[in-house]
Specification:
The chain is mostly helical. It has two domains: about 35-205, no CATH class; about 210-475, no CATH class. Helix content is about 80%, strand content about 0%. The chain has 21 helices and no strands. The longest helix is centred in the middle third of the chain and has 34 residues, at about 240-275.
């Protein structure tokens, strides 16, 4: 029974769900064992800042090494670059640590512990990112997915044992346990790939201009949302304090489900769009990128509806009522991420074939530079709500720029073909959940069932796509 693209999309979504679901569960356990202020410190220095710095230390080499024919030869350069850039960042932060901690409103007596943890985590995730890129280029997707998910799973295990079996709630111990998983996950893969690493270091090949721009284009489009999240965290910590950064991180944890769909498009569209130059063929074939995009877009709309109705019960259930502030504006962020899916879908199916579309790369860079000031102004005038409106407004503008610059708008036409049927499904589901309010679990199940029945019966989604999703339908040559 031949598996088509719809099935492999489900595979990637499952991997992302395991990885990010474990990450969210680890945060939930963490939030229940320490204070919101300590939670804000840990998530800032172990998740947000390493994620922000990793965009520098891994740069675009993950995407370059994902090139099936040429990527592997740049492994040694990527590894050396990652280690050296991590060292340079460590020296810079060491020199200016007093100013940096003052900017983030963090007492300076924490700096030695948080500094060591920050760069221990950063070095681990940098080397891990290089190795994951190598596995992806070798098309060893199972190993790449397992290695990517391992740190999140280990965090759940470590924190669960610390909290439930040993009743540990000391900040320093919990902080160390939360930081260790990237290093622990890295050890077996270093042993497994030791020979490849040792041999490759004998020859360092510099990437040429063409492959560098190829990787950079995919990299900058993919990391835009992550960078905006991390910038938001830093600006919120500076403008409102680390406590509010912790609340915003809780919102991001719940809104992360919508980024699953954009991430899946990133993983599958890059190889598909570089293999074939025939856009219509890859979009219109049965179970192809057109069907995949429409199904994932449906899931984005459903997620927005459910988060709008059940944000407060979800936050209270998962993070306790002390974090209820995080649910107040969550729906704004969810709407932005649904629109971001449209941008990503259009962009990734254009960028590898349209040289003129490379202008979007420079638009993306410019928006990243403007974003911190815009967020600061939004927070200044609107308070905590500004932290949610800022990325959402930027996403709307970014999507409009993408559509304007794209020469091939067929991906957009695919998503919005029969759009009225999708709108009807969403509208009816919203009305029914409003008229007949239900508790959390029954409401989510009922809303999901109603929405799926409607999108299938109204014809926005082909019923056969659900069989393709699980690899149950026979494919005919």
């Amino acid at each position: 029974m031949k598996k088509n693209l719809m099935f492999y999309t489900f595979f990637y979504l499952t991997s992302l769900l395991v990885m990010r679901g474990s990450g969210v569960l680890a945060k939930i356990l963490l939030a229940r064992s320490i204070t919101p202020y300590e939670y804000g410190l840990i998530t800032l220095f172990i998740i947000s800042l390493p994620g922000l710095f990793q965009d520098i230390t891994n740069f675009c080499f993950f995407d370059i090494m994902g090139h099936a024919t040429e990527g592997k030869k740049y492994f040694s350069f990527s590894l050396v670059y990652g280690i050296i850039s991590t060292g340079i960042l460590a020296v810079i932060v060491l020199i200016f640590h007093a100013a940096i901690f003052s900017f983030l409103n963090i007492p300076e007596h924490y700096w030695e512990l948080l500094y060591c943890i920050l760069f221990g985590v950063l070095l681990s995730v940098t080397i891990g990112g290089v190795i994951t890129g190598l596995l992806r280029g070798e098309r060893n997707h199972s190993a790449a997915a397992a290695f990517s998910a391992a740190p999140s799973i280990l965090r759940v295990v470590f924190i669960a044992f610390a909290v439930f079996f040993f009743q540990i709630n000391d900040f320093f111990i919990v902080c160390l346990l939360f930081a260790l998983p990237p290093l622990v996950a890295l050890i077996p893969i270093l042993v497994f790939k030791f020979r490849v690493i040792a041999v490759s270091l004998h020859t360092i090949v510099l990437p040429n201009r063409q492959i560098l721009f190829f990787g950079f284009s995919f990299f900058i489009l993919n990391v835009w949302v992550g960078i905006s999240q991390q910038i938001n965290s830093v600006v919120i910590s500076h403008d409102l304090g680390v406590l509010w950064q912790g609340y915003f991180d809780v919102s991001l944890s719940l809104a992360a489900i919508l980024t699953f769909f954009s991430s899946a498009i990133y993983l599958i569209s890059a190889p598909e769009s570089t293999v074939s130059s025939n856009t219509q063929e890859i979009l219109n074939r049965k179970g192809g990128l057109g069907d995949v995009g429409r199904l994932l877009f449906c899931m984005c709309i459903l997620s927005v509806i459910l988060l709008y109705f059940y944000a407060h019960p979800l936050v209270t259930l998962l993070f306790t009522s002390g974090y209820s502030v995080a649910a107040d504006y969550l729906y704004i962020l969810a709407i932005g991420y649904a629109v971001l899916f449209v941008q990503q879908y259009t962009a990734f199916l254009n960028i590898s074939r349209d040289e003129a579309f490379s202008r979007l790369t420079w638009v993306t860079l410019a928006s990243i530079l403007i974003f911190p000031l815009f967020t600061h102004l939004m927070i200044h005038y609107l308070g905590f709500a500004g932290a949610y409106l800022s990325p959402t407004i930027f996403i709307f503008g970014y999507t409009l720029c993408t559509v304007y610059l794209a020469h091939d708008r067929s991906p957009l036409m695919i998503l919005f073909f029969r759009w009225g049927r999708l709108a009807a499904a969403g509208g009816i589901t919203t009305i029914l959940l409003t008229l007949f309010p239900l508790p959390l679990a029954p409401g989510i199940i009922t809303g999901t069932v109603i929405f799926l029945i409607l999108v299938l019966s109204l014809g926005y989604i082909d019923k056969e796509n659900l069989m393709d999703l699980f690899g149950l339908r026979k494919q005919h040559q």
